[in-house]
Write a structure and sequence with these properties.
- It is a single chain.
- With 186 residues, the protein is α/β, with parallel strands linked by helices.
- The chain has a single domain, classed as Flavodoxin domain (Rossmann fold, 3-Layer(aba) Sandwich).
- It is 41% helix and 16% strand.
- The protein is built from 7 helices and 6 strands, in the order βαβααβαβαββαα.
- The chain has helices at 19-30, 50-55, 59-70, 87-96, 122-132, 150-153, 163-184, and strands at residues 5-11, 35-39, 73-78, 108-114, 138-139, 146-147.
- The structure holds flavin mononucleotide.
- Flavin mononucleotide (FMN) binds next to α1.
C-alpha cells in the first residue's frame, strides 16, 4: 500500500487575501497523516489562445499538467463570481483540457469553496462540475463544503475561526482520502 497520498490543489482566486487560498491553507493544516498537499498558484497561466497553444504549451501549463498527472487526487477551491466559478479556473481548465494525455481523465477530484454570500459557492461548484464532465475526473459528491459568509469565518490573518467548518473539513478530508484510495485502487 502507498504510504502517502499526494493531492495537487489550486484556488480560483488570484488576490493575496483570498478566502479560498485561506481555505486551502487550512486544509493543509488539517490533513490526515496519510495525505500530502501541494498548492499550485495559477496566477501565471496566460489567457488561453489557440494560436499560442500551436506554438507550444507555456512552461507553467506544462508544469500544472505534469503535477496533476503525477498527483493521486486534485482539489479545487473556487470562489463564486456572478453565480459561477471564476474565469481563472475556466482558463486553467481550458489549457489542461487539450490533447494529448488530458491529465484529469479518471483522476479523483474534489471541489470546495468559500464566498462572502450565503450560498457559499453552491452555484459556482455546480457550474464547475458541469464544465469538468468532458474531462472525466471522478468527482467526490459528499460531504459538500460550502463556506458561506467567509469574512466571518476567517480572522484577519487567514486563520479559520469557525469550529463547525473545521469539523466539516476534517470529515471531508477523510472522505476524500477514502475516495482517492478507492478510485486509484491503493
Ligand atoms: C466579480 C465578482 C462577482 C461576485 N459574485 C458573487 C456571487 O455571484 N455570489 C457570491 O456569493 N459572491 C460573489 N462575489 C463575492 C465573492 O464571493 C467574494 O469576493 C469572495 O471573497 C471571493 O473569493 P476570494 O476571497 O477567494 O477572492 C463576487 C465577487 C466578485 C469580485
Amino acid at each position: 500500500m502507498k504510504e502517502k497520498i499526494n493531492i495537487l490543489a489550486f484556488a480560483g482566486s488570484l488576490r493575496k487575501h483570498s478566502y479560498n487560498k485561506y481555505l486551502l491553507n487550512t486544509v493543509k493544516e488539517l490533513l490526515p497523516e496519510n495525505l500530502t498537499i501541494e498548492i499550485f498558484d495559477i496566477k501565471d497561466i496566460p489567457l488561453f489562445n489557440e494560436d499560442e497553444e500551436k506554438k507550444g504549451l507555456p512552461k507553467v501549463v506544462t508544469e500544472l499538467r505534469e503535477k496533476i498527472s503525477s498527483a493521486d487526487g486534485v482539489l479545487i477551491a473556487t470562489p463564486e463570481y456572478n453565480y459561477s466559478y471564476s474565469g481563472v479556473i475556466k482558463n486553467a481548465i481550458d489549457w489542461i483540457s487539450r490533447p494529448p494525455n488530458q491529465p484529469l481523465n479518471g483522476k479523483p477530484l474534489a471541489i470546495i469553496g468559500a464566498s462572502m454570500g450565503l450560498s457559499g459557492t453552491m452555484r459556482a461548484q455546480l457550474h464547475l462540475r458541469q464544465s469538468l464532465i468532458f474531462l472525466n475526473p471522478i468527482i467526490l459528491n459528499k460531504p459538500e463544503i460550502y463556506v458561506s459568509q467567509a469574512h466571518e469565518k476567517f480572522d484577519e490573518n487567514g486563520k479559520l475561526i469557525d469550529e463547525n467548518t473545521k469539523k466539516l473539513l476534517i470529515t471531508f478530508l477523510n472522505s476524500f482520502s477514502e475516495w482517492i484510495k478507492k478510485i486509484n485502487c491503493i
